[in-house]
Amino acid sequence: MTGTPAAPTLHDHEAPDNPLALFDQWLEQANASGMFVPNACAVATVTPDGTPAVRMVLLKGHDAESFVFYTNYDSDKAAQLDASGKASLLFWWREVQRQIRITGTVSRTDTATNAAYFATRPRGSQLGAWASRQSAPIESRDALDARFKAVDARFEGDDEVPCPEFWGGYRVVAETIEFWQGRDDRMHDRIRYVRGDAGGWTRGRLMP
After folding, report:
1. Domain total of the chain
2. How far apart are CA 22 and CA 92, in angstroms?
3. In terms of residue numbers, what domain contains 111?
4. Do 145 and 170 fall into the same domain?
5. Does 2 map to a domain?
6. pLDDT tier at 199, thresholds 50, 70, 90
7. In sequence order, what are the residues at sequence separation of 6 or more whose Cβ sits closer than 8 angstroms to the Cβ of residue 102?
8. Are 196 and 141 within one domain?
9. Mind telling me the catalytic residues?
């Protein structure tokens, strides 16, 4: 990182007992930096034959122990999440020289949660969720656009677009959370939290 602006040190004594407090602080600072979609994160899964798979999603919520994103339940991503019950998330914030890596167990959010979030989405995004059978092959862009137009016509005049039963959220309950702060000369700061059986966290520093 030599030649980049000086980055703050992640001191051990400044790391809180609960990693979610540090996550909230870093996310707030990422938002304040003006970067593009700081809630974007990579979701890594594994296919049935053991091949790694990764793609970007948007974090749409988190609480004291879990992180939530939404997708099509018929997608390849969903099939892999359902089969393994595990996922890894990665946030990369170049502007503030930080990344956060999360691993944990995965479960679907309930239908009420799905419907409540779906209702907050722009209408175009709602229609797109109905029109796209995510990950399924389609013959052309024209065919995809035709599906969207058909869905638009289907719900024309309706005040609300209902949440499809094949669309919803996943909740990643964190088992490990690692915070990485970039530093000069590749002497980066890395603090890893591991959740214990009783639900508490232990933390330790890793060499870069």
Report:
1. 2
2. 15
3. 12-119+165-206
4. no
5. no
6. confident
7. 67, 88, 89, 90, 172, 174, 176, 177, 178
8. no
9. 186
Look up residue 40 and give its two tokens. Answer: 């974007």
What angle do the packed helices 123-131 and 141-154 form, to 10 degrees?
120
Distance in angstroms (rounded) separating the CA atoms of residues 69 and 81: 12
Whether residue 175 is contained in a domain is answered as yes
- Do residues 173 and 92 share a domain? yes
Within a domain: 115: yes
Report the CATH number that the domain containing residue 53 is assigned in CATH. 2.30.110.10
pLDDT, tens digit (0-9, with 9 covering 90-100), for 141-171: 999 999 999 999 999 999 999 999 999 999 9
**Looking at the domain assignment, is residue 80 inside a domain?**
yes
What one-character-per-residue DSSP string does 63-113 give? -SSEEEEEEETTSHHHHHHHHH-EEEEEEEEGGGTEEEEEEEEEEEPPHHH
Q: Under DSSP, is residue 203 helix (H, G, I), strand (E, B) or coil?
A: strand
pTM of the entire structure? 0.91
Query: Using CA atoms, how far apart are residues 114 and 81, in angstroms rounded to an integer?
Result: 17
What are phi and psi for residue 52, nearest 5 degrees? Answer: -65, 145
Query: Among 130, 96, 118, 78, which Cα is nearest to 27's?
Result: 96
